[in-house]
Design a protein that fits this description.
It contains no helices and eight strands. It is globular and about 40 Å long. It has a four-stranded antiparallel β-sheet, with no helix packed on it. A two-stranded antiparallel ribbon has the order 1-2. It has a two-stranded antiparallel ribbon with strand order 5-6. It is an all-beta fold and 87 residues long. The relative contact order is 0.20.
Length: 87
Amino acid sequence: MVVGGFGGGMGQKFDTVELLSLDPENHPVPDCLKSLRSFPEAISSAAGAALVDGAPVVCGGYIGSSPSEKCFTYNLAADSWCGKILH
């Protein structure tokens, strides 16, 4: 899963979410997972992992020019992101 990004000459950040296959020839991404809900905020330089229950979580990064103190978990059944502030 790739979330957000950084590009353009003006430091533009993105809210896109894309699921990638490590072996697209033998294990392509199913059609139902090719269009996931956008990330709640345009972000770059975030870190991600899969939780014990398999849900992707994305933390930190930069929103605008400020570091983010939030983690977001993706809910596949609801196609939604839920965010929490880290302390």
